[in-house]
Amino acid sequence: LFPVSTVGSWPRPNYLLDALHKRQDGDITFEEFNEVADKAVLECLEYQHEAGVDVVSDGEQRRDNFYSFVTEKLDGVQLMSLAEIMDIVEDKASFEAILKQRDTPAFAIHNPTVTGKVKPRTNLALDEYVFLRKHTDKAVKVALPGPYMLARAMWVDGITDKAYASQEELATDLVQILRDELIALRDAGCDYVQFDEPVLSDVVFGPDLKERTFMCASMAATSGDAHQELTWAARLMNAITHDVKGTNIGLHICRGNFSRNEEALLNGGYEAMINYLLVMQLDQLVLEYATPRAGSLDAFAPFPRMREIGLGVVNPRSDEVEPPEFIVNKAKQALQYFNPDQVYLNPDCGFGTFAERPMNAPDVAAQKLESIVIAARELRKEYA
C-alpha cells in the first residue's frame, strides 16, 4: 500500500550541465553526452534507493527539460531558446510581459519548435528505460510529454505552418509517435508510463488563450474555448492509450514548476477539469496537492474510487521538508475518496524541471523523499 514514487525530474549536477552545453553547441555527440549522463543517472538512482522510494525514475538526467529532449529523437524539430522564439512570435511585447510576470528567464529555457514534418529518428525514451532497468530491481517509471502540450508548445506561426496546415495535423503525427513509444516501453517491461500535461492548468486558470502563453512551455495560441481545448486533449490522450494494457498509464498535471515564486504559478482546484480527466483511458492521475493552490480533494467527491491517484504531498520548490505527520494527514484526506490500494505518494512535481533552473538541491529533495517514505510506513501499519 501507498507506494512512494517520484514524478520525474531530478536536479542535474554541474558536470552534466557542462556536457549538455557542449552537446547543444555541437562539440560532442549524443553518444558522448550519454556517457556522462550515465553517471548522473546512477547518482540520481542512488538517492532514491537510499530514501526507500518504491517506483524510481532516471531523473530525466539526459533531458534539457521534460519535453525539449524530443529534439534529439525526432526529425523536423529544432531546439530554440525562449529568447529566440521571442524574436519570431506574433506579439513579442505580450510574450515578453508574460515571461516577466511568470518569473521565467528567456535565455535559460529551451523549447522544441517544429520546422518540418515530424518523424521519429529513434525511440523517445526506450533507451532511458533500458539503461535504468539494468541498475535497479525497483519498479520503474518513465515520463513522456503529453500530446496536447507538444502540439501547442512546438507550434510557432511563421515556422511550423510551413510544414503543417494546423495544430490538429501536427497532433496526428505526434499521437502516432507517442502511442508507438508507449507500446515499446510496455513491451520492454516498463512498469509505469506517465504523460505530462501541465498545460491543461493553463487552459483553465491561465490568461487569454488567444495569446501565446508560458506555463512550463512556450505555447501557441488556441481557440480560447476551454471546453474545446480540454475535449481535444482528452481525445488525443485516448488515441494514444486506447487498448494498451500491461503497463500502468498515468497523467501528471501541475500549475507550473518553473519558479520558486508561488505567486508566479497558477491557482485553482481540479473541479473545472475533473470530468475531462476521467474520460481519459488512464490508470492513474498524478496530481499536486501539497500547496493550497491546488484546491481541495473534495473535487473527487462526485467520482469516488474511479482512478488511482498519485498524491502530491511535498512541495518540490521549497526548502522546508514536510514532516511525515503532514503527509499522513494528506493521505488520510485522500482516503475519503480513494481506497488505500489506489493511493500513491509523490512530490507535487519534479525537482529539476529545467536543466538550467532546478527547483531544489539534491540533498533537500532526498530529505523530502525520505519523509514521504516514513509516512508511507506509518500508513501501511494502520491500513495493511
Question: What would you note in describing this structure?
Answer:
The protein is an alpha/beta fold and 384 residues long. It is 38% helix and 15% strand. The chain contains 12 helices and 11 strands. It has a 7-stranded parallel β-sheet. The protein has a two-stranded antiparallel ribbon with strand order 2-3. The chain has a two-stranded antiparallel ribbon with strand order 6-7. A hairpin with a 3-residue loop joins β6 (213-214) and β7 (218-219).
Describe how the helices and strands are arranged.
Elements: H1 14-24, H2 30-51, E1 55-56, E2 74-81, H3 82-86, H4 92-101, E3 110-120, H5 126-133, E4 139-145, H6 147-153, H7 167-188, E5 192-196, H8 199-205, E6 213-214, E7 218-219, H9 226-241, E8 248-253, H10 274-278, E9 284-287, E10 308-314, H11 324-334, E11 343-347, H12 362-383
Parallel strand pairs: 1-4, 4-5, 5-8, 8-9, 9-10, 10-11
Antiparallel strand pairs: 2-3, 6-7
Helix pairs in contact: 1-2, 2-12, 6-7, 7-9, 11-12
